[in-house]
Every structure is written in C-alpha cells, then in structure tokens.
Amino acid sequence: MTFSEMLGERNEIRDCYAVVQQWVEETGIEGLHRRLGEAEAIFRRIGITFAVYGEGGDPERLIPFDLLPRIFTALEWSRLEAGIRQRAAALNAFLLDIYHRGEIIRAGIVPADIVYQNKAYKPEMAGFTPPGRVYSHIVGIDIVRTGLSDFMVLEDNCRTPSGVSYMLENREIMTRMFPELFVRERVAPVDNYPSQLLRTLQEVAPPACDGVPTVVVLTPGSFNSAYYEHSYLADLMGVELVEPADLVVDEGLVYMQTTSGPKRVDVIYRRIDDDFLDPLAFRPDSMLGVPGLFNAYRGGGVTLCSAPGAGIADDKAVYVYVPEMIRFYLGETAILQNVPTYQCGKPDDYAYVMERLAELVVKEVHGSGGYGMLIGTQASKAEIETYAARIRANPAEFIAQPTLDLSTSPTLGPSGLVQRHVDFRPYCLVGKDIRLVPGGLTRVALTEGSLVVNSSQGGGVKDTWVLR
Amino acid sequence: MRISIRHETRYDYAEPAGGVVMRLRLKPASSNAQTVERWSVSVNGKPVERWILNGYGDAEAVWRAGSRIEAVTIVAEGDVRTVDAAGILRPTDGAPRPALFLRHTPLAEADEAIGAFAERARSPNGPLASLHLLKDLVHDEIVYRAGVTSMETTAADAFALKAGVCQDQSQIFIAAARSLGIPARYVTGYLQDPERPDDEHQGHAWAEAFVDGLGWIGFDCTLGRCPMDGHVRLACGLDAADAAPIRGVMLLGAETQLSHDVQIEALPLDGTSQAQTQQ
Predict the structure, then answer these.
(1) Chain B residues with beta carbon closer than 8 angstroms to that of A292
(2) Are residues B104 and B161 in the same domain?
(3) Does a cis peptide bond (omega within 30 degrees of 0) precede residue A306?
(4) In this predicted structure, what is the pLDDT of residue A190?
(5) ipTM, interface predicted TM-score of the complex
(6) Where are the alpha helices (DSSP H) in A189-226?
(7) Residue B278 within any structural domain of the chain
(8) Which residues of A are less than 8 Å from B105 in CB distance?
C-alpha cells in the first residue's frame, strides 16, 4: 500500500498538509495552473535550466516545477536530520580511515578489493590528511519514504552533489508568488544555505592560509550542464567563479588571474571530476585541469572540496556497508536504514537475484542517474533477458534492490491533484561542524505510476517545507 | 657501497613552449637499504626546494616555467650509501595498503598468456618461492633487447615479443605477480653494476612485490636477482607511466626532443676525505 504524504491512517488530510489543502481549495485547479505558468515564466527568465548531476539530457530544458510543496513535520525532520548528520560523519570517517590505516578493512568489515581495486579510490590521496579531516564537504543523501515513519537511504553523493540551487530557487519562487502561505504556516528558512556553505569552505582553509580564506567555485565551463548552479552559488556566496585556465600553481600556492593581477586562492569548491582536476596527477590527456594543483593540495597550499577520491564513499558497492561504518566509527546504530541490497558478486545473492529479476531493481555498481538500470516490474521479458546476460557476464558489477513503493505527494495534474512518487535529497555541510539547512530537493516522478524521479526521465522538482 | 649519480634530462622545444609544468619524482629517500648523503635537483640551474611526499611515500615536486622557454634541463645528482638488504624494503608509515597494488593498469595487465605464464611460477612453498620462480622465468624467457619496445608497450605486447628492456621485464613480472594475487609495483632508480656496459647511460627499473611478514621485496628481472647494494631506489607506482620520474604538460605545444644522460659511479667507501676538501 503506497504511503501518501498528505494522508493519515484513515485517509484524513494530515495536519501538516492542512494549509496546502486549504490553499488548493481557495485557488482552484485552474487558478493553480495559471500561477504555475507564471512560475515557469520566472524560471525561464532567470535561466534555471539544468540537469541534476550526471543525469545527462538536454541542459537547456526546463525541469518541471510543481507548485505543491512537499512537507515534513518538525518531528519527522528531527529524526531525518539526526540520521543525515550521522551518515555524513560516518562517510567522512570512512574516507579518513581508508586513506590511512584502513582499520575497517583490517577488521574484516569492508572487503579490501571493493576499496583498493575501485577506480574511485585514488592512491594519490593515501597518507594525506585534508584540513579538518574532511573529505566530503557537501554530502547529498538521497532518501526515499515508504511509510509514515519509514525512511530509507537510496544512495549517497559524496563528490559534488548538485541540485541545491533548485532548493533555493523553488523556495524563492514560492515565497515571492505566495507570501500568504508563509504567513499561515511556519516554514523553516533555507536561504542561509549559501552563507553556511561559505562558512564550511572557509573552515577547511589550508595550513598555508593565514588570513580570511579566499574561496572560489571551480567550474569546467559554460558547456557544463550544471554551469548555472556553479555561477549561482558563487554569486550567492560572493566569491569568484573560475575555470581551470584562470588558475595557476606557483611554488606550492594557487593563484587566480584577476584584472588587478594574481590573487591567492585558499579553498576551491570544485565542480570538476577528479580525473580532470590536474593532468599531472590524474588523467594526463585531460586538457582541462590545473597542472600542479594536486601537488599544491597535498603540500597544504590549497584545499580542494570535495577531496579527490571522496567518491569511493558513495560507490554502490560500498553503500551496503554504511550502517556498519556507523557502528564501527561512531558506535551508534544507523538512524536511517539502507534499502536491502543484493550484491550480485556474492554467489547466494546472485542466485537470488537471477531468479527474481522481474521483481527487483538492478543497478550498475558504478552507474548513476537511472541509466543502465533494470526495473523488473516494468520491463518486458526480452529486456530482462538482455539484462540477465549482462549480469552473467560480470556479476560483481551489479547490485539489486527490491522495488520500493515510494511515497507519493500531491501534485498538480491537468484536471486536479494527482499522487506522484517522490524522493528527497538534503545537502549536509561538513567543515569544523556539521551543518544542515532544514530542507533539500524533492524530486517527483511526473509520469503516473513511475518510480524514476531523475530529471532525465521525466522527473520534476518541488519546494520542500520543514515545519517549525 | 657508495654510489655517485648524475642524471640529466633535457627537453628541447622546436619553438618556445608556453605553460610548461613538470612533476618531478627525482629525489631518493633514505631507507634501511640506502642512505642519501647528498642530493640536489635543479631545473635550468635553479634548485628545486619544495618537495612533498606523495601517496606512495615518494618525494614529489612541481616545477613551472614562468614564461615561454626553448629548453628545460633537469639535473638530479648526489651520493647515496647503500647496503645489501637482500632486496627487502622495510615498510614506512603512511604507505598505502599493499592490496592497492593488486590493481590492474593498462600497461601492466595480465592477458591470458601472462596468466598462464604466472601459473608456471606458482609454488607450493608460498608466495616468496613463487616470486623467485617468476623472476627467474622472466629473466630467462624475456630477452633483454633494446629498441623493440617503447614507453607505451604493454606487458602483454612485450610478453608476446618475448623481448624488451627493464621496463617491459618489470611490467611482465608485475602483471604476473598480480594475477597470482600478490601485490606488486614498479620501481624506478639507478643501478651501479660492474657487469653492465659503460655506455648504458640510462635509468633503471625493477619490481617490488609484497609478502606478508616480510614487506616489499625487490625483484630485478633484468639481472635475474634481487636488488643488492648496487641499486638506488627513486620512486614507485602501479606501472611505468604511474612511476615516471618526470611527467610534464605544456599549453602551447611545440615539437619536443628529449635526451637523457645518467652517469653512475662507485665512490670510495670512506667519504670523509672528500667532504673535507669541499670545505
């Protein structure tokens, strides 16, 4: 039985959705559609048209916005928040460990090969301790809900999770267009995210920095699908947006070219993949990148956020072990559960999965964004056969999970409210402290019955309210 | 043994090159097998002073040309005192976990032929015996021959040729050791060997493999034995490209001519007289 976020056990409207329900009744469906048109016009004008990380698709396409907010009660949020912070702390502890002594591997909890043989594990990072012992400064955790109090983590994003500009823009649009809603309901603000992000980045300044740290956002350039977000965040933080060609490494320090000459850079919020950061450290054929940047980082002249090699923590093969990481490093029980996951590399799991392909969701271990995924319940016999052949050829490259009955949230349909499946990505900031703004990005699968919320596959976004 | 080394690398650009940046791994570290008495690295006459330890525990520096240049001359030189440590390198703290060196790389990947070759070396007496057998097999069956392979030749291609230089022999050994489940890595350095011809003004390379309880053990397949006191260890990596002593990029490209010269000689064991004359 699908959990509807708006309805209680006896199909009554939950208190937290009362204001929205009232607003819908007052405005009427036609009125809502008119206002949605206005909202889309604003989005187009400011140019927020990009795909969420790694999802591909047309970067010029506007991601559909749904007017009806997704709402968490204060109580729900307090539990989510504790779980998110706990997970962000454990993932960073894991990264610190595996780039040093690897105690969790020695203890036999995480197998050595899924770490050391993993392309996301960067040997260049071994033995180095980044400022503040932080590797992943912005942890995006994808959470799904299957019941009133059942939240599960679908995946972690420890590199450079994107989409936070939607969180900010969605709220901006809602408060601008419907100020009366925010008078009626006490919604926790999210607009301090940029200042919290800046503070987090400044907290991890390198040893060579002895003043107020200079932070920049490093983008691959305007051709990148998330370029809008890069420039938007730089703008809101009041820092420079730079491309690799703007940076130069000299005597172990990094400088950006400015009209008034070179200026020292202390912290780089980089939105470039590891492989393209520095051709002298990573991919030698990369024309992108800043030669010598990694050497300056290891030498304590600059801080890279996230640390190269942080992606090993969000690998799907590693994901399975996160609850055990929480126990191992924090001595706590995971507050947010993982989705039960079968590793096809294990003979028992493999047998289980191959017998139940029609019921399961199968993913590539290193894939992202809903591509290369098999949703057994929606696939044809032929599709399942083709996919099964791929698994047989390379079992360790696949994991499988039960098809989750994601919760639905009321969404504006052509002739009334409809129920559509949603997920949720909060953005947890890790510097000297762990910070979390009360909110995140709610993605909604706009196609009826669809469980895929990715923007490349017909997903949209909603404002997310945390009530106070 | 006391060994004096002078290693000069020169890049000549057909036209002035812009944005030249180089990563240098040209500074040997002291260990249980070697003590660095004196060492300096300079680029175009200017000493390189900012060194960091990289992920493999080796010294690494970055040099950047301030403007367009026509030539880059890199000189690494110094004296190293060595002892015969039976090829065993004692582990240093902070070094990455050995299991990392089971990772396959394009240059040192075992194909079916290398896999079968490795199986011939598998010994019932454990990994150390297997490694010695493997070293002998490579030494005997992969003929040392210059000019048949290049820097880009993979272990599999060199194995098919059954010939190559120390880079190829080492990479074949590494690929085979990994296929036996033994961590192995590529080592660059210098060799002072009375049996080696004098006109071979080259750096040297060999392999190290990890054996539980012992640590990293050197295997020189070119010589067919473990390194003794003639080897000076510089740096390591997953394969030759990863361990390269010099890696460079340039923004505004020009045709580049590369030349090397390595001079190695044994010094008298008592170094005090020389040190005094330098005062």
Answers:
(1) 21, 23, 62, 64
(2) yes
(3) yes
(4) 97
(5) 0.91
(6) 193-203
(7) no
(8) none
